[in-house]
């Protein structure tokens, strides 16, 4: 199980996956918005998304879990 | 009158010398050499052969032994006292080498071996040549130095500090190193680590267990994954001893032998004015969209070659070595792909250290800016971002080497300063038509300067629309042609001409000489 975490305090702009979906390593899970930039959150592993913990317009802190990949 | 031939019988003497030599060349013996190989490590003398030009090694102290009667009784002969030292050549240029032999008492630092390293440090400094450590050592030989004669120890690190910035210092991590042999890399300029077989830690696992009770392996505590990805102590993770030694040769090819020489310029077949139209595809004009700055660097450097330093740590800034028209240069580049290229504590640390390295040895600096600024907020303030940001300001301000800056897109706030904005003695600063140079972005401007006006508007859609309209007004003033119109940047360039502009800037600045007021040294933010 891999928890994918936010690396920076940000707003969630887009969520690009949903629970149950299969992803490859490097696939974009969500796009955060911080410091005038779109910051893609990529899956570090291939697997199945077991949960997505954020929704668009959510505020995340550094270290918050964005999604869990099994 | 001929002497009696018996008075000239040199054979037994030469034979004895030859026997002593071959005993020294036998290192810790076949069994321990075999064990060294089974661990995936090369014997020390093979490492030296791979590091140096063939036949160039002049060994010092080959016939050394521990000379410690107690140790001699327990362990017998200790080949070269576990330290193979000497001078050889890399690409025809001399370097001093200190290589610990793990097959001799785990490469521990013995009195005689350390006397040899002292001689190499002195020689490197007197000859003004680089020093290369090949580290595969358990650290201090505590069997021989467990008492308070320790009071006189420690000059090795002080001498390393004296050498810093005078001659290049490389510490190649080729085994598990603790304490003494972990501070040697800590004070060196460049530290490659072999994956899986090397580590460094102030305390080895047994000491850690005794001191704190923590049960941890050398790899978990100080392996290449820790030091190249998390701590930032090491510069590169390599796959094998062979790759590590080739990497050391490659690294030194960018550097002069000492701080009084110019970096070695190479003949270059890659045209200085080569157009790089692939940059149109690599970099989006949409300012919020990320891209990979490594692709930009490979497009513009001589033959697409780049030698990254600390690529896996603080990835939001890229540091490394390249050549432009044959001239070695250090590159400091924003990485929009990671955290949007925003600077934070570790990236400022990484960039400052790299700028100090290049400035010490006369390597020009090339800055590729696409920086939204420094990260703001309570998290980074607790990490001391002010002192880390100040450190980068300090390093870039101090650097007197030729400095060329290209603003690709964002150049906001102190990010623009530390990435060598005009005021930081940029010898040539150019911007792309997409450049956004300003103290902060339009949204920040609105939040701060228009706060009262906005609060007067009822909350909701109406206020949002007003904020957007205000931001649009501010955005109009963020235009590179305004900076160019005031001649605050030297030119606006077609992105495809970026390589040409950098080569031009470095050629223009090649004879740069800057004198500062005398001081002992500045007061460094760390």
Q: How would you explain this protein's 3D organization?
A:
The complex is a heterodimer of chains A (70) and B (526). Chain A has strands spanning 2-5, 10-15, 22-23, 28-34, 37-42, 47-52, 59-60, 65-69. By secondary structure, chain A is mainly β. In chain A, the strands form two sheets. In chain A, strands 1-8-6-3 form a four-stranded antiparallel β-sheet, with no helix packed on it. Chain A has a four-stranded antiparallel β-sheet with strand order 5-4-2-7, with no helix packed on it. The radius of gyration of chain A is 11 Å and the shape is globular. By secondary structure, chain B is an alpha/beta fold. Chain B has 22 helices and 17 strands. In chain B, the strands form four sheets. In chain B, strands 10, 11, 12, 13, 14, 15, 16 and 17 form an eight-stranded mixed β-sheet that branches. In chain B, helix 5 links the parallel strand 3 and strand 4 (131-135). In chain B, helix 14 (345-360) packs parallel to helix 16 (385-398).
Short recap of the structure:
The complex is a heterodimer of chains A (70) and B (526). With 70 residues, chain A is an all-beta fold.
User: How many DSSP-defined strands of chain B?
Assistant: 17
> What oligomerization state is this entry in?
heterodimer
Helix content of chain B: 25-40%
Q: How does the major sheet of chain A shape up?
A: 4 strands, antiparallel
Form type of chain B: elongated
Interface with most residues: A-B, 13 and 20 residues
Helix count of chain B? 22
Portion in helices of chain A: under 10%
Sheet with the most strands, sense and barrel status of chain B: 8 strands, mixed
What's the N-to-C terminus distance of chain B?
77 Å
Q: Strand percentage of chain B, roughly?
A: 15-25%
Low-confidence stretches of chain B: none
H/E order of the elements of chain A?
EEEEEEEE
Shape of chain A: globular
Relative strand content of chain A: over 45%
Number of distinct beta strands of chain A = 8
Q: State the low-pLDDT regions of chain A, or none.
A: none
Instruction: Indicate the mean pLDDT of chain B.
Output: 95
**SS-derived structural category of chain A:** mainly beta
Whole-number radius of gyration of chain A?
11 Å
Radius of gyration of chain B: 27 Å
């Amino acid at each position: 199980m891999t928890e994918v975490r936010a690396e920076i305090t940000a707003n969630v702009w887009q969520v690009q996956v949903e629970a149950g979906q299969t992803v490859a390593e490097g696939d974009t899970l969500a796009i955060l918005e911080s410091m005038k930039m779109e910051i893609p959150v990529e899956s570090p592993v291939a697997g199945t998304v077991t949960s997505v913990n954020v929704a668009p317009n959510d505020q995340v802190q550094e270290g918050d879990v964005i999604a869990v990949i099994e | 009158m001929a002497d009696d031939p018996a008075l000239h019988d040199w054979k037994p003497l030469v034979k004895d010398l030859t026997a002593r030599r071959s005993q020294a060349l036998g290192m810790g013996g076949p069994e321990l050499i075999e064990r060294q190989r089974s661990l995936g490590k090369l014997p020390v003398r093979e490492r030296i052969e791979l590091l140096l030009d063939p036949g160039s090694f002049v060994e010092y102290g080959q016939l050394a032994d521990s000379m410690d009667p107690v140790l001699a009784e327990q362990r017998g002969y200790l080949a070269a006292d576990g330290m193979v030292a000497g001078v050889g050549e890399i690409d025809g240029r001399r370097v001093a080498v200190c290589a610990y032999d793990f097959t001799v008492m785990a490469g521990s630092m013995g009195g005689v071996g350390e006397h040899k390293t002292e001689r190499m440090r002195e020689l490197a400094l007197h000859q003004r040549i680089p020093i290369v450590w090949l580290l595969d050592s358990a650290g201090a030989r505590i069997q021989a130095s467990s008492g308070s004669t320790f009071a006189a120890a420690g000059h090795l690190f002080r001498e390393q500090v004296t050498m810093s910035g005078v001659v290049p210092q490389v510490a190649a991590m080729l085994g598990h190193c603790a304490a003494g042999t972990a501070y040697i890399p800590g004070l060196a300029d460049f530290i490659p680590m072999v994956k899986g077989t090397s580590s460094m830690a102030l305390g080895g696992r047994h000491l850690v267990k005794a001191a704190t009770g923590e049960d941890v392996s050398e790899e978990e505590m100080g392996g290449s994954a820790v030091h190249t990805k998390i701590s930032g102590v090491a510069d590169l993770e390599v796959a094998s001893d062979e790759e590590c030694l080739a990497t050391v040769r490659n690294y030194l090819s960018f550097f002069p032998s000492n701080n009084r020489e110019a970096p070695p310029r190479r003949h270059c077949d890659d045209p200085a004015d080569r157009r790089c139209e692939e940059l149109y595809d690599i970099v989006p004009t949409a300012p919020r969209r990320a891209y990979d700055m490594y692709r930009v660097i490979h497009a513009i450097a001589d033959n697409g070659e780049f030698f990254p330093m600390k690529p896996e740590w603080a990835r939001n800034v890229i540091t490394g070595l390249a050549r432009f028209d044959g001239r070695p240069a250090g590159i400091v580049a924003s990485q929009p792909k990671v955290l949007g290229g925003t600077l934070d504590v570790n990236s400022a640390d990484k960039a400052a250290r790299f700028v100090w390295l290049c400035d010490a040895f006369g390597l020009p600096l090339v800055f590729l800016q696409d920086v939204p600024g420094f990260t703001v907020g309570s998290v980074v303030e607790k990490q001391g971002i002010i002192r880390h940001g100040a450190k980068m300001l300090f390093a870039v301000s101090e650097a007197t080497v030729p400095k060329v800056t290209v603003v690709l897109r964002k150049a906001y706030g102190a990010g623009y300063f530390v990435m060598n904005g005009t005021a930081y003695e940029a010898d040539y600063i150019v911007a792309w038509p997409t450049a956004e140079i300003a103290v902060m972005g339009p949204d920040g401007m609105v939040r701060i300067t228009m706060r009262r006006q906005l609060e007067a508007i009822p909350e909701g859609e109406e206020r949002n629309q007003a904020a957007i309209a205000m931001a649009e007004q501010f955005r109009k003033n963020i235009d590179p042609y305004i900076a160019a119109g005031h001649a605050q940047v030297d030119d606006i360039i077609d992105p495809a001409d970026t390589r040409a502009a950098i080569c031009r800037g470095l050629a223009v600045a090649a004879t740069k000489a800057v004198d500062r007021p005398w001081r002992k040294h500045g007061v460094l933010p760390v």
